[in-house]
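Human: Here is a favour to ask of a fellow structure person. Comparing notes only helps if you start from a blank page. Give me a protein, with the fold worked out from its sequence. Please set it down just below, with no commentary around it:

Assistant:
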Amino acid sequence: MAENEAADASEVIDVRTIPKPERHPLIITAYRKLEVGSWLTLVNDHEPKHLKDEMEAEFAEAVGWEPLPATDDGFRVRISKRAATPIPRVLVDVDDVDALAEASGSVWQLQPAQRDLDANIISLAPGGEIREHMGPDLDVLIHILGGGGTLETELSTISLAPGQIVWLPRRSRRHFVADDETGLRYFSVHQRKQGLTITSRS
């Protein structure tokens, strides 16, 4: 069977008449149901660049993306399933975090929608803080990447320095204050939860 004939024989999903907010979830759900080595043919009214970016972020090399010859009435893409699960990959190089020294907030986040973990790189500008609060009902590990500062707990103050791994037990009280000169950057990993609000001291 010729390659184009094989593409025509695959499952065809025509989203041109489907409301735009429903298109990506429909296509991704159909992709997840595919057997390894099989594919679907997407018909769309525009080149689906954002869908391609979303699927590559979610599945990495496990998803195959092959544009097919366009017709007057739409774009066609063959989307294949090359592996049973998303592929392990490098997400970020912490050596690049130094370039974010002046940023403040969550400067990197774990992106795949289907995941059990949340992970972030938090950057506090010099003198910045995460105000005192009681943590969520889950444990958090943080790895200090750069800068310095303090972690004020219910009973004491911990000095933070690069290389440390700090455990934040569930529901424990914590208050992060970044060094006035270097700021503070750390990596956190935990079960999924809502993010924190980061502010600066007056």
